[in-house]
């Protein structure tokens, strides 16, 4: 049974916050928090990386050329990192999370807030990262939060102005985290749509792989715009089938992140897709990636979750076929992904003209009806 603990509303930066994972995002998030005034400790599993961060205030493997704030400390000891931390941010590859939780569980204090910075779902279980944290740490969801949004690490490390979303079932938890994760170049907004915020970050990776594939093939802006637009419809249909608010998918954690990830060569998912489009096999691409491209591992569990709720995801399906080597990247065809003659999701109607094959349109229709009938929207971002 989950331990029940009251969440303290923190109205000043906490004494100590810690980040687990000193890769590109964990280190960048450490900089965000330190530049916002927090006392930041980074956990790097390799002692030599912890040493470089402490002594040179650099992380040359993941953020070459970036000077880290002098106040950031790093340690390779999980216990030293977590001891006394009021907030524990987790930024390791999604498929590695569960294997770290047994060691972490006894170290997290009963009052600490735990925040997922990750954008994947677990293979095998299909669980979102906050669900894996909830299970593995036996923690109340009120003490959990997730962060997402258009957040390419290197741009933020260069202090380019950026916005993000912090979501928690408990608004006070999201607000406490957002207050700490805000500084002169980074602004965190809050909402309570954890499902939408988390799935937004996962799903945009899959669409970014598709964009990378067509980029690698050499197709131009029409193809990419078609995939982004139809991809957002797929993302929204999927997320709403799992209870997300459509507004979340239209906000920073959905459309915002989709645009950033699909258009940037900094994106690892986009890069992986581009290699596939250039003819490299899935195994070659995995071998060439130096950093985490979450989308590659999330395709299969997302398609399983989609099938369980009857959601059509033709673009994600095609990505899966390219990964499996059963579809030539040149044959990715966003305009051929439906048997309906109606451009789904493109024409608002009153439901009467909503003819067959429009699974992708249905969630928009439901959202429209809800708004028309005075239904409640999400707090959005
Ligand atoms: N980079 C970005 O722009 C953004 C990334 N994210 C998300 O953040 C998460 C982390 O990504 P990111 O920092 O980019 O990834 P990186 O590949 O840059 O870094 C991964 C980090 O996790 C560590 N790690 C790898 N395997 C394990 C393991 N089995 N146990 C413990 N630690 C491990 C690595 O340590 P080591 O160096 O020793 O291998 C490294 O510190 C992902 O879910 C990603 O989607 C979210 C927003 C932006
Ligand atoms: O999540 C990200 C940007 O918001 C980072 O994307 P990549 O993991 O594709 O680099």
Automatic annotation (TrEMBL):
GO molecular function list: glycerol-3-phosphate dehydrogenase [NAD(P)+] activity; NAD binding
Protein's recorded name: Glycerol-3-phosphate dehydrogenase [NAD(P)+]
Family: Belongs to the NAD-dependent glycerol-3-phosphate dehydrogenase family.
Name of a matching Pfam family: NAD_Gly3P_dh_N
Biased composition (Basic and acidic residues): 344-353
Domain Glycerol-3-phosphate dehydrogenase NAD-dependent N-terminal: 16-173
Positions annotated to bind substrate: 119, 268-269
Encoding gene per record: gpsA
Protein purpose: Catalyzes the reduction of the glycolytic intermediate dihydroxyacetone phosphate (DHAP) to sn-glycerol 3-phosphate (G3P), the key precursor for phospholipid synthesis.
Binding-site list for NAD(+): 21-26, 153, 268
Region (Disordered): 336-363
Lineage: Bacteria, Bacillati, Actinomycetota, Actinomycetes, Micrococcales
Keyword terms of this UniProt record: Cytoplasm, Lipid biosynthesis, Lipid metabolism, NAD, NADP, Nucleotide-binding, Oxidoreductase, Phospholipid biosynthesis, Phospholipid metabolism
Enzyme class, UniProt record, top EC level: oxidoreductase
Domain of life according to the entry: Bacteria
GO cellular component terms given for this protein: cytosol
HAMAP family according to UniProt: NAD_Glyc3P_dehydrog (MF_00394)
Regions annotated as coiled coil: none
Annotated catalysed reactions: sn-glycerol 3-phosphate + NAD(+) = dihydroxyacetone phosphate + NADH + H(+); sn-glycerol 3-phosphate + NADP(+) = dihydroxyacetone phosphate + NADPH + H(+)
Compartments where found: Cytoplasm
